[in-house]
Amino acid sequence: DADVTQTPRNRITKTGKRIMLECSQTKGHDRMYWYRQDPGLGLRLIYYSFDVKDINKGEISDGYSVSRQAQAKFSLSLESAIPNQTALYFCATSGPGTGGAYEQYFGPGTRLTVT
Amino acid sequence: GQSLEQPSEVTAVEGAIVQINCTYQTSGFYGLSWYQQHDGGAPTFLSYNALDGLEETGRFSSFLSRSDSYGYLLLQELQMKDSASYFCAVRPNSGAGSYQLTFGKGTKLSVIP
Q: What value, to the nearest 5°, has the Cα angle with vertex B106 and ends B104 and B107?
């Protein structure tokens, strides 16, 4: 079984809809991250969390919110989706055993299309 | 803040050696990481340089020179399966940001027969 899982893997939604992307991990890591990937722009950090009581904004948090329901679960919400949020979304984890944030483990990604 | 520059595309021949460069501007960082991403796949960690110099892992090596604000990933004995995108990333050394990574925009490597 995969260590970092994301659901759904693909989603098409309409402008204005609320949507939630979910991430679960079995690695026992305390740090979790949400990234967005657009062609030619690399990976950009949306939010990150050090534990269930700690949530931090990343580079591009506007239009997004997150919830850390448990150490193993970190969800990303788009309250009112818009077409320019069409992208590939990745969840990632890291922990002290991996030397800190420089070695992150990524989920398989969620391809989101907003029409 | 941090910014990283990489070539957008590189093409190399199977069996050859290729170097992917990463130049950066940063206010301070712990080290430079490299990730590989195949089309349709997730990024996977390749290497990390905390100190200046060369780190070798099999066919892959990574180099860092803080004085030159420069690093590179070296791939030897190229194989077709090495066709992928490669990202450099820095880990800032300032407060909460020290647990983040800032990624370059990636270099798409195409290996041709």
A: 135
